[in-house]
Predict the 3D structure of the following.
Amino acid sequence: MFLLFCWIFSAGSATLLAQTDRSEQTNQTSPSHYSVIAPLAEKSLLLDAARRKGLILAVGERGHILRSEDRGQSWTQARVPTQTTLTAVYLHDQKLGWVVGHDGVVLRTEDGGRSWTLLRNVPKDELPLLDVWFRDDREGYALGAYGLFLHTRDAGESWERKKVHPLDDSHLNHFAVTSAGHYFLSAEAGNIYRSLDEAKTWERVPSPYEGSFFGVLPLDGDLLLLFGLRGHLFQSRDGGDTWQALKTDSQALLLGGTVLEDGTVIIVGMDGVILISHDNSQHFRLYPQPDRKGITGLLDLGDRQLLLIGEEGLRSLSLTDLESGK
């Protein structure tokens, strides 16, 4: 069975976090081994991908990082100084980027993913990082288990641990930024956090559901989509103040989404779920994949071509063929 919940960890982690100083200096002890170069790495479990112009990077299990410069037609595996599961990647441009993962790992590339430097590695904490986002080439954020929220001002060389909410240690799953510059964190147990001052302060916004959320997808203006467990998909037209449920015809876990250049909105998830909207997220149609393999995310390759990321690794899909039933 596909165990996508790679952010499950030992019961002792919460206690350990409570005993750790919030402004601890990051542990930069290097692991003793590198990821294994595998002929079928592009078919292994992959959890996230990012694109900047002609460069695509994808990350996943066993420290796998794959790069492509031909719209996903071919892939090269990088030599990476960890074998831990990598959960998220962020590209600032075609050269500079960061990856986070289990053991609190943070990696940085300055040559478009060809080589990587280990900046942070704290296996003793048993706190995986689940997402990463950078405001510019110096300041960024990484987030993860039990409310772990890290801030750097030096491109990841050092990290300060901060608290999003004083009474909540929910797992923080995803970081999103709207066109208005408002920040959102989607978390477990129905928690959603919003910052209107560039992460200086956070507020918990009203939640339409008590289950976990795995992503916020900003659309035009104050229009947002929020998705998570059991096929739950919600829309907000007022920047997160209120939410309305959308019909998905699925109870699968929803994990990722994107907006194509033509305005098409796509949400993906477990059981091969692909949800598509052509009316600015007012209505979605379900296109389940026959193999029912989990999809963790997707990228727009242009010309109605998609790159799917997930249990099957990486695969291209024609949106035209999908909607025509081919």
Q: What stands out?
A: The radius of gyration is 19 Å. The chain has two helices and 27 strands. Residues 1-31 have pLDDT under 50 and may be disordered.
